[in-house]
Design goal:
about 140 residues; alpha+beta; eight-stranded mixed beta sheet; elongated
C-alpha cells in the first residue's frame, strides 16, 4: 500500500495553507472547509522560555497511524476530502507545526470531523517534540 507522507520539513507556511485551500475551489460539491492550525507556544518551563520545538518521529509508524485516523474519519463523517500535515525538524515559537483540513458538503460534519482528527492525532501518532530553550537545553514535550 502506498501511504501518504503527512510530514513536512520545518514549519508549515501560510502560503502552503492558502494554496491547499485554493486547490479545492474546483470541487463545487464542498460547502464547508474546517481547518485546525497548531502553533508552537512560547511556554515558560522552569523559568525558561521555549524558543522552538524540534519534532521527530518514526515516520513509517506515524504515517501508518495518520492513515488509520484518516480512514476512521472518512467512515465516521461525511467528508469530501481531508488532509493532515505535521512538521518535522525545528519549528520556532509562533510558527505552525500542524495543519488539519477537512472538507464536507455541510459545516457540522466538518466541525465534528476536525475535533475528532486533532484529538486522535494527539493521542495516537508517535511524534516527539524537544522543547528548546535559549541556552540550548531542552525538555521532551508532553502531549496535552
Amino acid at each position: 500500500m502506498n501511504m501518504k507522507n503527512c510530514f513536512r520539513e520545518g514549519p508549515i507556511s501560510s502560503a502552503f495553507i492558502g494554496e491547499s485551500i485554493g486547490k479545492h475551489q474546483a470541487k463545487t460539491n464542498i460547502g464547508a472547509h474546517q481547518i485546525f492550525l497548531g502553533q508552537v507556544r512560547k511556554d515558560l518551563i522552569n523559568n525558561q522560555e521555549v524558543m522552538a520545538i524540534e519534532y521527530s518521529a518514526h515516520e513509517e509508524m506515524a504515517n501508518n497511524a495518520f492513515h488509520e485516523i484518516r480512514e476512521s474519519a472518512f467512515s465516521k463523517f461525511d467528508l469530501t476530502c481531508m488532509h493532515i500535515y505535521h512538521s518535522l525538524g525545528k519549528v520556532e515559537a509562533g510558527e505552525i507545526c500542524l495543519f488539519v483540513f477537512a472538507s464536507s458538503g455541510h459545516r457540522k460534519e466538518a466541525f465534528r470531523a476536525i475535533e475528532f482528527l486533532v484529538e486522535e492525532i494527539k493521542s495516537k501518532v508517535p511524534i516527539f517534540g524537544k522543547e528548546l530553550f535559549e541556552d540550548e537545553s531542552y525538555v521532551w514535550k508532553e502531549n496535552k
